[in-house]
Amino acid sequence: MTAPRLLHPGAWWLWAVGLAACALRTTNPVLLCLIIAVTGWVVVSRRTDVPWSRSFASFLRLGLIVIAVRLVFQILFGVRIPGTTLFSIPEVTLPSWAAGVSLGGPVTLESLMAALYQGLRLATVLACFGAATSLCSPYRMLRALPTVLYEAGVAVTVAFTFAPQAIVASRQVREARRLRGRSDRGFRAWSASALPVLEGALDRAVALAASMDSRGYGRRGGASVSQRRRSVGLVLAGLVAIAIGSYGLLDPGAPTMFRIPALAVGVAALVGSLAASGRSTERTRYRPDPWVKPEWIVSLAGLIALASFVLAGRISDALTPSTNPLEVPAVPLVAVVGLLVATLPSWFAPTPPTLATVSTSMAVAA
Amino acid sequence: MFVIALAGLIVTTSARAEASSCSGPLSGGEIRVVIVVDATDFGGGSSATCLVVPTGTTGSQLLARRSAELGTGSVRYGSSGLLCAIDGMPATGCGDHNAGGFDYWGYFNAPSGSWAYGNINPFTRRVSDGDIEGWRYVRGGKGSAQDPPPRIAPSQSLFPVLAPNVPAVVEQPAVASGTASLSSSSTTIDVDRGATSDSPGVVSMATTTLEPVAFEGIALASSRASDPIIGRWFAIAAVFFLIAMMAGGAWIQTRRSR
Q1: Which ipTM value was assigned to this complex?
Q2: Which of chain B's ends, N or C, has fewer CB atoms near its CB within 10 Å?
Q3: How far is B57 from B65, CA to CA, in rounded Å?
Q4: Does the beta-carbon distance from A33 to B240 stay under 8 Å?
Q5: Where are the domains of chain B?
Q6: B2-222: which CATH number, 2.60.200.20, 2.60.120.10, 3.40.190.170, 2.170.130.30?
Q7: Which chain A residues touch B92 with a CB distance below 8 Å?
Q8: Strands annotated E in A80-222
Q9: Tens-digit pLDDT profile for residues A84-126
Q10: pTM, to two decimals
């Protein structure tokens, strides 16, 4: 048992992204439920005491809403997939220019199951994101980012801290409502607090970005204006290319052009930006997070799960069970084993320090 | 190949000789529609089938009716509602990438005597009397109106000539037994005069050439059916047992940490 410490946030993100990529490769409800269970289990065993570590439950709730919305949309506007009709809703005949859309009509079991599978997949991706958010500190993640991303300072800060800040803000808004003697449950409370929560979260993220800016984050020492412009342009182009490339990697149906080539172009642009800025700045890190054995185990666990899904997809078509005709989904053993490997972080990641352990170790040191 | 074509001709001739509702008079609420399926690019044949269906039948229902009439296996759809396979072609995959485009079943309507790319959802488009519907397996298509239409031209001569003096009483029992059985028979026309616009010289074959594929489809279906469903349920139960253990463990840990 190693001493309590925080795992490198990059390891948790790699693990979560690996599981999210698994979820994007399948519509098998059994596997999707297993992915959610794996993320939940690891989150509960390795989360910290900080406010945003409670965000996993919020993400699960958001996932339920996503599934419900997907089902309602399927019932109202979905493609009228033939099959076992459960019930019918009144049908509106649309004019010929909108003939690709259907409004109302018979609702079949097949169409509802297809919508459920797709909603569940999105909910699983949300659960993976929620797991990463609650397992590691967004501030440490910002610190661990490669220096080229500093150019996109505010955007990166908002992207990484918005979700955890929203969790913190929603707690405060609910507390405030309770102190004023209002209910903090139910739809009305929820709708009344939605705007303050979003506003508060964005404000906090932007304030964090501003304070980091004022402390020199994203500054490039003695670089000239033209050098800086060139490097910023390269960073932006590189980020766009990487976004396209990672989308292509995650979506098995994407054209080959949008996969490795786009990713390679993006990385090349980022490296080019480093070169363009002339490496004029020397940076030091204060107490950098180490990347040692537990970090390797956690990140590899996520990647092994992803590899098992790729393999399962090659072996059989059990990852995408047919909904028309409806069939009992088969469970590919390879994928299940891969997901069990993804639970390893709950034993091999070091336990995070709690307030209690921090005081004990300080007492020991004293 | 010649033998298959010959066999096709013979069987089709006998099918044509058979008196069918498509050449008989229509009762109320019935319409005659021809559906053309061109699987030549997949290695299948192309066929035109005349069907008598109830008014208000949609394009996809028509396709399902055709498969039922010909006994060629059910039409396969993807989870998004995209049509994947007609007559079991292709056996796997759905609108896959190929040569910069897609391999897919293109939907065509014939509003004015020539094929027009079907921009209307076949799930909602309702066919009317005398309509001709077309499906063509397109290889490397762009999914746009430039994709090639079925090789059989949508001419009204695809409809069999209405036989005079057929007593209308024949169809009455079928009407009584409900709309589903309204058209219990169909006519498949052997079209060897079909316009082969993009591959001249190809003699389009009658539906009988589909039979080997249909058998393959049935074999596939039966092999899937023999795949023990109980085993699948068992596997699902095992995974959900795992999930329950993790959820229970997580719940206990949460309780302990409070």
Answers
A1: 0.73
A2: C
A3: 10
A4: yes
A5: 2-222, 230-257
A6: 2.170.130.30
A7: 317
A8: 85-92, 103-108
A9: 888 888 877 777 666 666 788 888 888 899 899 999 999 999 9
A10: 0.69
